[in-house]
Structures are given as C-alpha cells and as structure tokens.
Request: fold
Amino acid sequence: MAQRRIENKGAQHRINEMIRIPQVRVVSATGEQLGVMSSYDAITAARAVGLDLVEVAPDSKPPVCRIMDYGKFKYQQKKRVTKQVVHRTKLKEIRVRPKTGDHDIQVKLKQAREFLVQKDKVLISVIFRGRELAHIEEGQKLIDFLLTQLEDVSKIEAPPKHMGKRITCTVAPK
Reply:
C-alpha cells in the first residue's frame, strides 16, 4: 500500500509519524476503545484499515489518539467554522428622484425587497434638484408609494423626514 503523506501546516492535531509519545490511548474509527498501546502499533493498526492516527487529546495521560480519515475530519471542522458566520445587518440606500420613471422605480423596489429579505436595513432617499424643490408633495407621494409597496416585508424604523434637498426614511426587515 502506498504511504499517504499529509501536510500539517498550521494544524493543531498531530497525525501518524508526528506522534512521538511512546504510549497512547487508542479509539477506533467506530468509537470503540482499543486501550493503551505503543504509538507504532497504533499507527500500524490505523494503516491496516486505510486511515490515519490523529491525536485528539494531547493533554491527557496518556494522550488520546483516534483512528480516522484526517482529510474528512479537517473538512468537517472547516465546514463547522463557516456555518458559525453570523450576518451583520448593513444599511443599504435606495435613491430616487421625483421624475424617476415607473420601470426604474420598480427596479429599485425589487432591490430594496432583496435587501430586506437578506435582513439588511434600507434607507430610502428622494432627492430633489433645482425646481423640483418647489414640488415637495411629489416626493412625498413617491416615498409613500415605496413604503406601501414594501410594507409586506418591512416595518418603518424612521418615518419620512424632509432635510434640505432630500426626504429620507429608514425601513427594517420584519
């Protein structure tokens, strides 16, 4: 049988020939206690079934080693760590103007809906330029329309506020 060589860069587990302790407690791949034996005999037993001998509890006396597939073990550990990643809520912004076309508003609504489904907050901004400031009620109608379209997936966190050349409103996912 060809000898497998596994690189152990940055890993906390010693495997196969890296285990230098003369006596180790061995646990089989099925979880059965095989008892205390020499590390050479344990490595031989692991190779006989085509697996690796991995030191899982180096601090105990004698150290506990388990017969397992080390590549599969590393994969499962990596998968467990990535599963623990928690989503951080971000604030996304949707900017529109009173003269924005209907289709463009539908695209912005779709984006806002996706952000809310992904548990992000959305800042809706209606921005006025030049003579548009004379018709603030158009911007207010637009923001009310956007809020009614998003009410099934969101709740209003900060009500619409007029500040200078913009009206802003923050919505959070339900």
